[in-house]
Design goal:
With 320 residues, this protein is mostly helical. The protein has a single domain, classed as A middle domain of Talin 1 (Up-down Bundle). The protein contains twelve helices and four strands; from the N terminus they run ααααβαβααααβαβαα. A two-stranded antiparallel ribbon has the order 1-4. Strands 2-3 form a two-stranded antiparallel sheet.
Length: 320
């Protein structure tokens, strides 16, 4: 037990430093290239912080533990919205760009529904996995060209106003080092955190599915939590919410896609159907709360409360 507690502490330390390094590197790289922070958050940061989910789901699928493989992704997406946005918004209200509300959030909801439909036959097959991976590539390709178009438009407007900004003197290699180092620390830190938490949970007789959608999902979502909290402290709202939306899309399309391609995932719909419905509900709840382009402390508290209610309900047999 003591060893597992030490693992949790080591994981927390790695997550703290990793989150700070990742936010610093990502935001400075975006500034140096003139790329929007939102684009960096929805792509590179989101994929980087989703690596723990990838490692856990792949390993679980190869070991024949489908409950852990699918539960990890579903639980992580619930935690990303309920826990991460809830905790982040309590620290500092999150400004939501109109473009994020009108484009990326509805796309995330559609991908959530699409993935849920693929599971209705009881398996995410290799064909499904290929379809999910192609969807991920298509989404990022589309988003890249849209971001580039918006960047070119902004540059032309600045040129017309004779307000072309000076070229930044940031050391890009150094900032890329911070970005990669931050991602590495987040992956390693979450790995220690997951191992310690899972061992403690199994010691008290909790099922694999419950562990997957709560303890493992919480552990693999810690990189997103660390990155978003750090972004909130640094007043980087685009990074904070973009990381969550991008990570949820990456979890559904990239992580499940790659995992299913390597090893088809059996889905026990009778046991995990409730968790899929909760994942869809949390995704849809982003629309009314983001309507005013800000996620305030009151709304954040509701997200956080809903997440803890979900966890308590999941652990009802153990608690009661």
């Amino acid at each position: 037990m003591l060893e597992n507690i030490v693992f949790v502490i080591i994981g927390l330390v790695g997550l703290f430093f990793g989150g700070n390094w990742l936010v610093r590197g990502a935001s400075n790289i975006a500034i140096s290239f003139g790329i929007s922070t939102l684009f960096i958050a929805l792509t590179f940061v989101a994929v980087g912080t989703s690596m723990p989910e990838m490692l856990v789901s792949l390993q679980a699928a190869l070991q024949g533990n489908s409950d852990l493989a699918i539960g990890n992704v579903v639980g992580s997406n619930i935690a990303n919205i309920g826990l991460i946005l809830g905790a982040t918004g309590l620290i500092a209200p999150i400004s939501v760009q109109a473009v994020l509300l009108l484009r990326e959030i509805p796309i995330m909801i559609l991908f959530t529904l699409f993935t849920t439909i693929l599971t209705l036959d009881g398996v995410i097959s290799r064909v499904d996995g290929i379809l999910l991976m192609f969807s991920f590539v298509g989404f990022n390709t589309m988003f890249y060209f849209l971001a580039k178009q918006e960047q070119d438009t902004a540059a032309r407007l600045l040129a017309d106003m004779d307000e072309v900004p000076e070229k930044t003197k940031l050391n890009r290699k150094k900032e890329i080092g911070y970005l990669l180092g931050g991602i590495a620390l987040l992956v390693v830190g979450s790995g220690f955190m997951v191992e310690g938490a899972v061992n403690i949970a199994r010691a008290v007789g909790v099922s694999d599915l419950v562990i997957a959608v709560t303890m493992v999902a919480f552990g693999t979502s810690l990189p997103e939590l660390a990155a978003s909290l750090s972004a909130a402290f640094h007043k980087e709202s685009d990074l904070a919410i973009g990381n969550v939306v991008g990570s949820n899309i990456a979890n559904l399309l990239l992580i499940l896609g790659v995992t299913a391609f390597v090893q088809p995932i059996n889905v026990n719909t009778s046991e995990i159907q409730f968790e899929f419905l909760i994942m869809i509900a949390f995704a849809i709840l982003l629309i009314p709360f983001a309507r005013h382009q800000v996620l305030g402390r009151r709304e954040s508290a509701l997200f956080l409360g809903a997440y803890f209610a979900f966890v308590l309900y999941t652990f009802r047999d153990v608690i009661f």
